[in-house]
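Changelog-adjacent note: as of this version, every example in the card shows the full chain rather than a window. The one below runs 184 residues end to end.
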Amino acid sequence: MAGRLKSAGLIAAFLVIFFPFLTVAEDLNFSLIPAEVHIDNLPPGEVAEFELTIHNKDDLAHNFTIATFPPPEDERREGSTEFPDGSWISFSSPTIEVGPNSQANVMVTVAIPQEQKWAGEDWETWLGVTAESSDLLGLKLHVRLLVSTSGIRFSAGFIVGIAAAIVLLGYAGYHYFKRRTKPE
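Full-length structure tokens:
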């Protein structure tokens, strides 16, 4: 009997301590548009931009923080790899205050360095938007960002092979035309 009272007391204490935090976290109501962004065929060295809209559906103003983070490997889209460098993504403002029952836009810029090794890739990263709160539990929503780069990825072996083929074709062409012009 004493064991049951102790268990009931622990459950009651747990509910009293954690239930208010859960209800406060659920009261913070916001959404993001778009939920997913596709940037296709972005050439290395080029820049792409899009707007991220944060809708604050609460009756109070809230501050929001925006940052990139890698998605868990098991949640990444098939065929995509982790985005190589989060510093290639910048925000017009990494923190923004959104008034009650209103929305605000943040410009997101994706800039891929101009190196051939970044061509022909498919990457994924997530943009996390966190509502700053004094509660222990914070609410975080994310936008899935899928980026594919255009161009053919040339390896050193491929370039050496093309150079060797040009030299061999030039040598064969030289000997062919030399024999044709030689009197018999």
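Structural remarks: The two ends are 118 Å apart (CA to CA).
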